[in-house]
Amino acid sequence: MRTAAIVPAAGRGSRFGSSDNKVWADLCGRPVLEWSVSAIAAHPAILGVVLVAAAGDRARAEALAARVPRVLTVVTGGATRAESVQAGLRALPDTTDIVLVHDGARPLVSRATISHVLEGVIEHGAAVPGLPVADTVKRVSGDGVVVENVSREGLWSVQTPQGALRELLERAYSEAFEADAPPTDEAGLLERSGVPVHVVLGDPDNVKITVPEDLERAAAALRQRGSANDGSRACRTGFGYDAHRLEEGRELWLGGVRIEHDRGLVGHSDADVVLHAVCDALLGAVAGGDIGVLFPDSDPRNRGRRSSEFVVEAAARAREAGWSVSNIDVTLVAEEPRIGPYRLAMREAIAAAVGVDTDKVSVKATTNEGMGCVGRGEGLACWAVAALVPRIEHTAVADTERSETEWT
Ligand code: MG
How far is the centre of ligand 1, averaged over its atoms, from the C-alpha of 234 (Å)? Predict the structure, then answer.
């Protein structure tokens, strides 16, 4: 059985309070839609995904499709969900046996939920994931007064992906359009066309992003999964370099630690050359610009600032982009002072600013053997590298898990 998915994402999402479609809202560094499409495409049974986008979203939908494996094509949707799914159905490869339709606004669908739906389709012909309604349900009048209690018995809330044998779904859609009554979901339409739809167990995390607060909840859930990082996405590294002059009458700050010395580094901020190199390493790892772009010395607000604030901000940007710091390694080049006595304090201060344990931060030092400007004691230089790993579970699976890897 060859399975394809359709992801309709051409709607407007009026409850989201933004003129832009909610599926394009940022969620941990990627659009909501990219999470939804990736999750579906990563299931080993899914051979291809048809993405349905609004005409005005065509360019960014195609850019998204280029980033996610197994997106077969992007098609333009219609005014209603039903029209969009129909457009998706027309774009399916001829050999498709099973179709799953998944909301573009459900970024957290799990592999288990997709598997349950597929098993349901194979056994019964049509299946949707759902959860028994847990809350007490009441019917409420237009002016906010309870009219009656509704029995929860037999009530389920239904999610996506909704799945069916292709021929059943196509027939249901064509009948619905003949009847001129487009349905709001696939299950409703299949039922009307006489196809029993089986409910399989969904997942409470498989929420639909409807209001802005849903994004916060989804981000928290993704971060939670980060602890189960499966290493399927490569790590990233960033490199930082900085140098500052030494002058009398300045305090010397290195790695966030005040160092006793007769001279200090010259700069707009506290001129902490170690933290500046660390900051650039973090920003470099996420292609986030550099310290001069983020904290320009032309901005008076940056005058005299503690450089640890810059590192805190750079680390936050890395986290927001979906990465956590695996380790940081620093090499300071200085003829003097000796930093041995300060090494542990520097590691602790850097680790605190980055938000990691001290054992993830290394500080080394060397002299320049008297060569060059650093060797003559005119200033200090520092190199740093940062390694980052995904902080979020990625559902990509190895192609070896797939029985078939492409349409034939
Ligand atoms: Mg600097």
Answer: 30
Task: Give the mean pLDDT of the chain.
Answer: 89
Read off the tokens for 395.
């559902």
- 307 CA distance to ligand 1 centroid (A)? 9
How close is the Cα of 265 to the center of ligand 1, in Å?
10
Are the C-beta atoms of residues 219 and 28 closer than 8 Å to each other? yes
How far apart are alpha carbons 206 and 130 in whole angstroms? 10
Per-residue pLDDT for 398 more than 70?
Answer: no
How confident is the model over 86-94, as a mean pLDDT? 95
Question: Does the global pTM surpass 0.70?
Answer: no
Distance 324 CA to ligand 1 centre (A): 24
Distance CA 51, CA 64 (A): 10
In angstroms, what is the span from residue 259 Cα to ligand 1's centroid?
17
- Strand 71-76 to strand 126-132: parallel, antiparallel, or no bridges (unpaired)? unpaired
CA distance 215 to 22: 9
Centroid of ligand 1 to alpha carbon of 302 (angstroms): 12
- In angstroms, what is the span from residue 366 Cα to ligand 1's centroid? 19
Instruction: Examine the pLDDT at 278 and tell me if it is beyond 70.
Output: yes
- What phi and psi values does residue 9 have, to the nearest 5 degrees? -145, 35
Please list the alpha-helical segments (H only) found in 202-358.
Answer: 212-226, 273-285, 291-294, 307-320, 343-354
* pLDDT tens readout for residues 206-248: 999 988 889 988 988 887 675 333 344 568 899 999 999 999 9
**Residues 128, 163: contact at Cβ < 8 Å?**
yes
396 alpha carbon – ligand 1 mean position (Å): 39
Cβ neighbors of 220 (< 8 A, separation 6 or more) are: none
CB 258 within 8 A of CB 364: no
